[in-house]
Write a structure and sequence with these properties.
This protein is mostly helical. The protein has one domain: Growth Hormone, Chain: A, CATH 1.20.1250.20. Helices cover 82% and strands 0% of the residues. It contains 20 helices and no strands. It has helices at 6-31, 33-40, 44-49, 52-60, 62-72, 74-93, 99-113, 116-127, 131-160, 162-181, 194-197, 203-234, 236-245, 252-277, 283-301, 306-322, 324-333, 340-353, 357-368, 371-396. Helix 6 (74-93) runs antiparallel to helix 7 (99-113), helix 12 (203-234) packs antiparallel against helix 14 (252-277) and helix 15 (283-301) runs antiparallel to helix 16. The radius of gyration is 20 Å and the shape is globular.
């Protein structure tokens, strides 16, 4: 296979940092959910509700941001991403004691962070020769953001409190501006690889894929917003053992966020394997197998505690996150290259926009039933997703 050249690697460095920051921006909030609950004197479910508009705008703005990227270029949109996200992070830091102002600042953070996926993935799909491998490496960077965010937020909160978390977040977002300004413009307007164009534009397949991705977004967001708090609540034996090793100097939140980081870090391996497999197997079969394994894993997460829960969470996130290079390559297969940014934008409207309603669902299920019931519902969502992928395979036939 053709190797990635210097230009490919430079593009992946540019998009990789953006993917890292997009997920860090979204995942620091769940990591400090319980500390915020204590400082604001609010129930955990009510504090979780403050993030609803952040997650909603992170998703539903993806399509208009994709249209903008198709028109004005990915690089310009990524500059706006870092500037807007940085300002809103500082706004969150200085409104940390006001629920309404904090919710407004988080909403802005979600709005600007929504730029990355349509801009970054569209750039990879149009400009990188080995799309699946590029998506895999880019996914690893995003997954590293998932892994770092809980640990970073938990550590900073432990040392200096929630306000410091968002001050630091604002600073590293603004660093992205310098990262882009020092680089080159890697977009070649009008360049469409013929081998990709010949395989693109199967509308029915793309519509079915959109349904699958929407269900996947619900599963992903539902699990990600509750996992740190769930780990904190359901692993008392793990905490007691670790706290004993460190002479009682640890907090439950720090242990839970560090554990969550480790769980997401394993997902990086899933991203790499998913990207490699996408070049060798039928994409649809790989997509089906990865999602099928998540169904029993998330179901049994509702029934376990301590180390068994952590092991199941590792399996769940390995396959839920590992399928993303496969999924993103399927998007490039079923859409015309000239609308690629918009296609990824539409994907993330459904995965992150509709998926944002999982925040409200988690809040409702936790209050009305139990936090364990959240994972039972997520298993049903994943089962529906598997059925949708089977429909995709039937409709598209042999490839």
């Amino acid at each position: 296979m053709e190797k990635l050249d210097n230009r490919d690697r430079s593009i992946l460095a540019l998009t990789g940092f953006g993917h890292f920051m997009a997920h860090v921006n979204m995942l620091v909030f769940p990591a400090i959910l319980i500390p915020l609950s204590s400082s604001l004197n609010m129930k955990v479910a009510d504090v979780l509700g403050l993030s609803f508009w952040m997650y909603l705008l992170f998703g539903i703005t993806a399509f208009p941001w994709g249209l903008a990227a198709d028109r004005w270029g990915a690089r310009n949109l990524l500059l706006l991403f870092y500037l807007g996200a940085g300002i809103c992070s500082f706004a969150a830091a200085f409104s940390i004691d006001s629920p309404m102002s904090l919710s407004l600042a988080l909403t802005g953070l979600g709005l600007f962070s929504g730029i990355y996926h349509p801009a970054g993935l569209g750039l990879i799909s149009k400009e990188i020769k080995r799309i699946s491998l590029g998506m895999g490496y880019n996914g690893m960077c995003g997954n590293f953001g998932l892994a770092v965010a809980p640990l970073l937020a938990g550590t900073i909160n432990w040392l200096w409190g929630p306000q410091a978390v968002y001050i630091f977040l604002g600073a590293i977002n603004l660093c992205g501006i310098g990262f882009i300004m020092m680089g080159k413009n890697h977009e070649k307007t009008g360049q469409i690889k013929q081998e990709v164009a010949e395989n693109s534009g199967q509308i029915t397949a793309f519509l079915i894929l959109l349904i699958a991705m929407m269900l996947g977004g619900i599963a992903y967001r539902g699990a990600s917003v509750i996992l740190p708090a769930y780990i904190e609540l359901k692993t008392p034996v793990v905490f007691d053992w670790l706290n004993f090793q460190f002479n009682g100097e640890l907090s439950k939140n720090l242990v839970a966020t560090s554990t969550t980081s480790f769980i997401y870090m394993i997902g990086i391996i899933g991203q790499f394997i998913g990207g490699r497999l996408a070049e060798k197997i039928d994409l649809r079969i790989g997509y089906l197998v990865f999602h099928s394994i998540t169904v029993p894993a998330v179901l049994f997460m509702s029934m376990t505690m301590n180390l068994p829960l952590i092991m199941l969470a590792l399996v769940y996130n390995f396959f839920l996150l590992g399928m993303q290079p496969i999924e993103n390559t399927l998007v490039s297969r079923y859409t015309p290259p000239k609308f690629r940014h918009s296609a990824y934008g539409l994907k993330f409207v459904l995965t992150f926009g509709v998926g944002a309603f999982a925040v409200k669902a988690v809040e409702y299920i936790s209050v009305q039933y139990s936090v364990e019931s959240v994972f039972v519902v997520l298993s049903v969502v994943s089962l529906m997703l598997v059925g949708t992928i089977i429909l995709l395979i039937i409709k598209t036939g042999k490839t």
